[in-house]
Every structure is written in structure tokens, then in C-alpha cells.
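Q: Could you write out the predicted structure for this multi-component system? I'm mainly interested in how the pieces pack against one another.
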Amino acid sequence: QQQVKQSPQSLIVQKGGISIINCAYENTAFDYFPWYQQFPGKGPALLIAIRPDVSEKKEGRFTISFNKSAKQFSLHIMDSQPGDSATYFCAAGEVFNKFYFGSGTKLNVKP
Amino acid sequence: DTGVSQDPRHKITKRGQNVTFRCDPISEHNRLYWYRQTLGQGPEFLTYFQNEAQLEKSRLLSDRFSAERPKGSFSTLEIQRTEQGDSAMYLCASSSDALLTGELFFGEGSRLTVL
């Protein structure tokens, strides 16, 4: 059973637009929901993360929206820039335990 | 602090050979994780250590795979009798209980190609 489902698989956005990536999880015991950004040939790097006691977290142009009852969370990238072009992974898990990753969304921001 | 270091970055081997990857975590990080990432997919958990103790192994980790973390510092991941299906990026990540969030810091990975 896939623990974390991510969509869309790929996304094309114009510069200045909003990029939205969605994830759904299965296990209600999960208490940590990070988003990672990965460039080709590099390891994933933490972008932003949220705990289930809040519904939204914003850091600069990046916002996580979290819906505990629906077991869903999403990443919004405001004012998307060509430098944001990368693959984004959502993940879910229990702190200090293993994380389950989504299958990734390849974002292409057109100049 | 130089981040998580992995070696080698690339390894090409023939089917049936053994390979070993090394991971040096961020100093003072007591937790160390191994993940595997195939092309176009997210990382999949393989195993993790708290200090020198291996706390969990994924069912993905067949008996050809073994991981160690002697003295709770660096870790090695060995794959015996490699198969073409082992071709992937092997990612190491470290974390610290002091961070409270369990945030994972990933290395740049070791890419394995089995011919």
C-alpha cells in the first residue's frame, strides 16, 4: 500500500505564476510532513515542513497547507521563478522514524 | 560542518560483483538513514541507525544487502552479488535528536550502475 500519493507528476508554470503540488497520506500516526527539493544529480534538500497541529505554514514564497481530516497537504510556490525548476517530493512520517516519500513532481517554470 | 558526505559518487560494476558505499554524516548527528532512489521515483527507505544500533530494516533490503555503523560515526552499505535491479541512487541522510523535528539532511548520493 502506497503510504504517500503525490500529484501531478509534472507541472509547467509561467514565471510569476503559482505552482501547486498535492499529496495525500494514509497513516494517521504520521506527525511530520516535509517537502524536499531535488536538482539533477543532487540529493534532496529540505524546503519546508509542517506538523499536524497547524493548518498552514509559510516561509517566503513557499506555503504548506495541511488538512488533517482529509489526510492531505499541499505545497504552494508563489511568484514561481525559473530557478524553482526542480523535482519536488512530499514526505510523511513519524519524527525520528522513517519517512515515506511521494513519487515526485517535476516542475518547469517557463521564463 | 561540511554536510553529509558519500563515497563513491558513481560506481559501475558487473553483475555478481560486490560493492560498498560509505556515508559520513554531519558530525554529532546520532541518526543515520539509507534510502534508495530509482529514476523518476521518490526515495525509498532501506534502513536506519541510532548511534551504532540498527533500528529498522526495510523488506526491500534483501540478505544481499548489509549496513553497518561501527562506533556510531560513518556507515557502510554493502551489496553482495549485485543484480541489474540494484542499479539506483543510494542516498544517505543524517539527523539529530537535538533537532526535535527529525529533519533529514541528505548527501548527494552514490549512483550505482550494474551492467
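A: Regarding packing and overall arrangement: The mean pLDDT of chain B is 93.
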